[in-house]
Each structure stands twice: as C-alpha cells, then as structure tokens.
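Section 3.1: Structural characterization of target chains.
Under the original work plan, the team committed to producing a structural model for every single-chain target entering the pipeline before any wet-lab resources were allocated. The record below documents one such target. The sequence was received from the expression subgroup and is listed exactly as submitted; it comprises 123 residues.
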Amino acid sequence: MLDQIHLLAAVTVLGVLEQAYFLLQVIYARRVFGISPPKISGPPEFERIFRAQVNSSEYFPIFLALLWQAGLFFHQGLAAALGLLYLYARYCYFMGYRASSSKRLDRCLCCPGVGLCSQPRLP
C-alpha cells in the first residue's frame, strides 16, 4: 500500500510546508508593520500578504481532497504531477498578490488540481 501513495504523501508534505511558509510571511509582516493579533487591518502591504495567505489556506482542504482522490482512484503519478503544478501556481499567486498592483501577474488561471501562471507583465 505504501508504494501506492508515496508520491501523494510527498506532495501533501510539500503543500503543508508551503502553507507554513505563507503563514511565516504573515507573522513577519505583522512584526514589520507592528500589527498585533487579532487585528487584520493595517497598511496595504500587510493586508495584501494577509489576504493572500487566507485565500491560499481556504483552498488547501479542497486541494488535498482532490489530490488524494485522484491519486487513489485514477493515477498516482499524474495526480502528484498536477499537485506540484498547483502548488507552484499557488506560490505564483501568493507572490503576485503580495506585490503592488502594478507588479502583479497579469492573471493566474487556477482549476481544481491544475494551475497555470502567466509570465509577469513586462513594461
């Protein structure tokens, strides 16, 4: 059984680490801008980081459910590859959202289990 889920488990651990990274970014932003919990408002820079983390954590349970269902009932390798692509898309989303609106990505198209990020807009 373990040989059938090792890729799914690895992607799950990477997803949890990514969520932890996003959370650490919020903690760091709270310290930089002097915003103590439970406040969620402050300078626009802090609010963008906080909102990006919350948006990412809202979709994480859906991602995990789809990852494991696809991996167990269809194909583990394909589900893991699409999971990695989704995690990369979430990272692109987070970094784009935390940047000022003039430096954000043009768009980030995300579908359940699959994410595609466009290249940053060039001047």
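Confidence is low (pLDDT under 50) at residues 110-123.
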